[in-house]
Design goal:
alpha+beta; three-stranded antiparallel beta sheet; 9 helices; 11 strands; 28% helix; 14% strand
């Protein structure tokens, strides 16, 4: 029996032997109180080898490794987005993204009214505006689930949210884009949504790591749209933003990656000048102008056949058809 002084009942042993016995006793005591299951080791294996095998930690998961989603899902697309640090806000201003609500789809109507027509129901339109300007309507607010009556006189009750906030876009790549590309993002229907004004104000320039819609059932759709925008324009995400979106999409792994859809004018008889849908040809298409969706066909005023296509990851534009 070992005493505090290192003596046994038969006398004092050498200090080196006492230290070895004490270490062995402590190791045995520690393993006895531990619930970790160890692999069986042959008796001939040295004690040093046993200690090394027991102490070897499990291989950790690679940091930043994305959860895989099915093909065509927002979760699968999320895995393709680079993760980088946030760039400085130096130089940022709303003006860097072009004039507000620029008619980038060239349908003769500003993008704010385009989105109102798309997202409101029972809307009434101002006469002699070619079905463009919305006077009244009802919004089923996606962020809160509340029905909101829209009136042009009190338009701030319904705001148009940039799902990827412009400041967030700036610090995740847009600071080095051309102004034309920034304008395209700021007016892209994919990145625009009519929502409750006060709720949108509360979001501010937040990303998914700092703000998500109060209505939890809309969160999968919300972050999927953000993923689609960042994939389309080649913006990156911060680690916190990426992780927050991954957490949401892990609960709805089959959530599809949204596609760009066009917004026609409210007056069916008016010339839209928009991209059209499917394979329907659109008149008033202008070579070099932004368009959607990719693959749509058009005809210029001069009768030239055009196709909506993208190159090098840039927003789709009308280009001369080759076939």
């Amino acid at each position: 029996m070992i005493t505090e002084t290192g003596q046994t009942t038969t006398g004092r042993r050498p200090a080196r032997l006492s230290a070895a016995l004490l270490a062995a006793a402590l190791a045995a005591s520690t393993l006895a109180g531990c619930k970790v299951a160890l692999d069986a080791t042959p008796e001939s294996t040295s004690s040093a080898a046993k200690s090394s095998a027991a102490a070897k930690p499990a291989k950790p998961t690679a940091p930043g490794k994305a959860v895989k989603g099915p093909a065509g899902s927002a979760l699968a697309a999320l895995a393709t987005i680079p993760i980088k640090g946030r760039a400085p806000t130096t130089g940022y201003s709303r003006d860097q993204f072009g004039p507000a609500w620029t008619d980038t789809d060239h349908n003769g109507c500003d993008q704010r009214n385009d989105v109102l027509r798309r997202d409101l129901t029972a809307e009434t339109l101002k006469p002699k505006t070619h079905g463009c300007v919305v006077l009244t309507g009802t919004l089923a607010d996606p962020y809160t689930g509340v029905a909101i009556a829209f009136r042009k006189q009190t338009a701030s009750a319904v705001q148009i949210d940039h799902l990827v906030a412009l400041q967030n876009a700036w610090v995740t790549g847009a600071f080095k884009w051309t102004k034309e590309k920034r304008t395209a993002l700021a007016t892209d229907p994919l990145n625009l949504l009519a929502v409750d004004g006060p709720t949108n104000s509360a979001k501010g320039a937040g990303d998914a790591a700092t703000w998500l819609p109060p209505r939890k059932t809309f969160r999968c759709t919300y972050v999927a749209r953000q993923v689609a925008v960042k994939v389309k324009y080649g913006a990156w995400m911060t680690a916190a933003e990426h992780a927050a979106i991954e957490r949401v999409l892990s609960g709805c792994p089959a959530q599809k990656l949204p596609q760009v859809t066009t917004i026609p004018l409210g007056d069916p008889g008016s010339s839209t000048g928009s991209a059209g849908s499917g394979n329907a040809a659109s008149s008033n298409a202008n070579a070099g102008s932004f368009c959607s969706p990719a693959g749509a066909k058009g005809v210029s005023d001069a009768g030239t056949k055009l196709v909506c296509s993208s190159k090098n990851g840039d927003p789709a534009r009308w280009r001369t058809a080759t076939g």
